[in-house]
Amino acid sequence: MEKHHKFSIWYVLLGIWAVLILNNIIAGQIGPKQIPYSEFLSQLHDDKIKEIAIGKDTITGKMVGKDGAEVNFTTVRVTPDLAKDLEGHKIEFRGEVESTFLRSLFSWMVPIFLFMGVWYFMMKRMGPGAGVMNFGANKAKIYAEEEIPTRFEDVAGVDEAKAELEEIVQFLKTPERFTRLGGRMPKGVLLVGPPGTGKTLLSRAVAGEAGVPFFSISGSEFVELFVGMGAARVRDLFKQAKEKAPCIVFIDELDALGKVRGVGNLGGHDEREQTLQQLLVEMDGFDPRVGVIIMAATNRPEILDPALLRAGRFDRQVLLDKPDLNGRLAILKVHARRISLADDVNLKVLAQRTPGLSGADLENILNEGALLAARADRNEVTMADLEEAVDRIMGGLEKKNRVINEQEKQRVAFHETGHALVAAFTPLTDKVHKISIIPRGIAALGYTEQRPTEDRYLMSQSELEGRVDVLLGGRVAERLHFGEVSTGAANDLQRATDMVRAMLTQYGMGQTLGAVTYNRRNQPVFLPQDSLLAPPAQEYSEATAAALDKELRQYMDGREKRVQELLQEHTDLLQAVAERLLKDEVLAGADFMAMVNKDSAGAQKAAAAGHHRTSHKKKEE
Ligand code: ADP
Q1: Which residues contact 406 (CB under 8 A, 6 or more apart)?
Q2: CATH class belonging to 9-88
Q3: Residue (of 586, 577, 597, 573) closest to 434 by Cα position
Q4: pTM here?
Q5: Of the given ranges (129-133, 231-235, 317-321, 554-558), which has the lowest mean pLDDT?
Q6: 416 annotated active-site
Q7: Which of 108-122, 126-140, 185-199, 233-247 shows the lowest per-residue confidence on average (mean pLDDT)?
Q8: Taking all residues of the chain, what is their mean pLDDT, rounded to a whole number?
Q9: 252: exposed, middle or buried (Cβ count in 10 Å: 0-12, 13-18, 19+)
């Protein structure tokens, strides 16, 4: 990079000067002969001048030279009066054009400077990345931050993520320990999570803990105006990183760069694709033992090009979700360190009031509180300040973000508890791993996560029924407690219906329809849930369709009845778990089962269900 000299005004000046000099020299050598005015006059008297052209300052023309040949000449005029006086005094006199060199230089330079000034101003206004002259590599310079003050203790409420990254820190500190046995460290770690959950902060903390330099760039900065520049920046970044190894390269907004490569888009995204390609090449190309770890952050992992996630690239993913109650409290505590709080401040209450907020939002609340206190000229931030800050921030976020109100939260709690209890009481279903009523993503207000205990390749009818029951558990629980269902259960219902439909039409599991496949679909794989969602093409008669609808309805009714009975028997447990969930927002699978087992009827039922074999991980939302 140092080889690229800076574009400098001095080069321009030097160039202009050289051109002028050259111009003069050439003019002197091949131009007409310069003669003094006195010589011109004497030649005139001798009738040697053949023809002349009279200009304002000069006279040019042809005269007969000493050897009789014609010579082009030029002379600078002297005022005729003066010339008359001078003539006959035997002196040589010549006219002199006052040097116009500086003047002409000036008349050149002023507009140039003016133009450059305006240009510079415009470039500044447009900001980096704009403008045609910006393609020089100097803008691409990415500096490493050498000493990062951030530590793990500054990042709160994300203990699992920290534990995963601890290994990276150890590797950066003492790479020999890992490479001695031929082990390979991950090259890339992808931090996934909603905005403001501390992805950047955590990457900086890894660099800080390990004491290594930190290169940081945003994915969108790579995507340049000119094709090829983004790729050049990637190369440059990796070159620098290798020089500074061990170090961390952090790419924010990886999705800006790593979106799935489109098929047949008309060249518009070539630049991005080239850049992405270069990134992949660089990631594949370097030896992991040099100690460069690439960390990237995204809040849209689903749109990333799968090539990025392959082994040897971003093969390790760390999830940073919105914090739960304890997480929020911990984050508030971290940021409260630098604020002088009054004695009446209860951070726990604040944490309870702020479900669905991210770490960045919480930091914002404390900041806002401090500003409110400062405005009122107080020396300490009081609870009232912070309460008001919460109102402000939540109010602002309510519109654009999902912040759930108390009633909705209750509904979600009962809904999720319903899923979880049905899962616990139904044989052959996956273990409940976690229940959460923290909103996540766009669609889910809460979720019950089930984890399979082993890999499965086929499913029996009762297993499928178990899944349908778990899906129905949410709406049944809502109806039991609130007397009606809500729109939140619509997706569950749809998925349950699709499953039952598939059971009847594809797998011959119905009573009246027999062992016939009613529609063929090119989907040999059953297990991926989404494959069930495509509406089947009809390949059967109207009569069959009617029979199918009838059986579908009966089947679903039957399932719902079972779930209804199941949950009705355990309303106390439903109530207890939902309340606990309302309090803690997240319930680990083990804690949930402990509650179930404490309830004697529940324990019996769960034992009878004998649990836990089934297929891939799935989530009921
Ligand atoms: P992201 O990169 O995930 O969008 P950032 O790391 O930029 O989020 O977080 C923005 C700010 O929010 C951080 O600088 C920090 O002050 C605060 N913050 C976010 N998450 C946490 C956390 N888990 N602990 C402490 N502070 C946090």
Answers
A1: none
A2: alpha beta
A3: 586
A4: 0.56
A5: 129-133
A6: yes
A7: 126-140
A8: 80
A9: buried
The answer, yes or no, to whether any atom of ligand 1 lies below 6 A from the CB of 199, is yes
Which of ligand 1's atoms lies nearest the C-alpha of 203?
6
The predicted structure's pLDDT at residue 538:
60
For domain 406-602, the CATH superfamily is: Peptidase M41 (1.20.58.760)
Which class would CATH give 325-395?
mainly alpha
For residue 225, which amino acid is it? L
Tell me 297's DSSP state.
E
Substitution candidate for ligand 1 out of 153, 154, 165, 197 with most atoms within 8 A of CB:
197
Which CATH architecture is the domain 141-175+185-262+272-319 placed in?
A: 3-Layer(aba) Sandwich (3.40)
Pocket test for ligand 1, best of 151, 152, 200, 201 (most atoms within 8 A of CB): 201
Ligand 1 contact, 465 CB (< 6 A): no
CB atoms within 10 A of CB 575: 14
Q: Which of 479-493, 506-520, 603-617 has the lowest mean pLDDT?
A: 603-617
Compute the distance between CA of residue 193 and CA of residue 306 in angstroms, rounded to an integer: 18
pLDDT in tens, 51-92: 888 888 888 888 887 777 888 888 888 887 787 777 777 777
Distance of CA 86 to the CA centre of its chain: 85
Element (H or E) spanning 582, and its range? Answer: helix 571-584
Which residues lie below 8 Å from residue 233, measured CB to CB, with a gap of 6+?
140, 142, 217, 221, 222, 224, 275
